[in-house]
Each structure stands twice: as C-alpha cells, then as structure tokens.
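ugh ok fine here u go
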Amino acid sequence: MPTPFAIVMTTCGDKANAETIAARLVEERLSACVQMFPIASVYRWEGAVQRANEWMLFCKIRSNDYANVEAAIRAAHTYSNPEIVEVAIENGAKDYLDWIASVTGGA
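structure:
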C-alpha cells in the first residue's frame, strides 16, 4: 500500500544553487531531508546532445505538499526548465516515515 510520502528529484548546475534549494525546503518544512550529490548528465537540449556536471537532490516530502515543493524549487532554481519529478514511496521503515511526518507540514 502506498505511503503518503514521496521523493522529489531535481538537478542543479552548481553546488551553491543545490544548497540554497535544500536549505529552503527544510527550513520551510516542505522536506524532511534533502540529499545532494554530484552527478554527470547527458541529455538533449535545444537540438544537441549536452554533457554537464550537475548536483542531484533527493527531497523527502509529504505527497500532498508536492505543489508547494515544486513552487519553492522553481522560485530558487537557476534553470529555465528544471527537472522536478516526484516518485512515490511505496514502502519504508515505519520509524523513518513517522519522522518525515513529524518534521514536515504544520507539525
């Protein structure tokens, strides 16, 4: 049975933007935790194959906060068309999911 939680993934062009977005989401209680790690991306943009070093963010959220999370990411993001995708958390350790609930939203 799906949980009421999700992971939102986004990529940033530099560590400073990733840290800004992560801090905003946690400070505003939109995300319990944001994990950041450097990645190498290959993608098609404006008709050409591009390669870039980026920062991937995994943001643990309440699913019903997705619209607010997306808005907060867009407001702080430097990309004109950022990757922002939500993946449902189908299952997870109860104590971890309880922690997400306790530190996000209006709790």
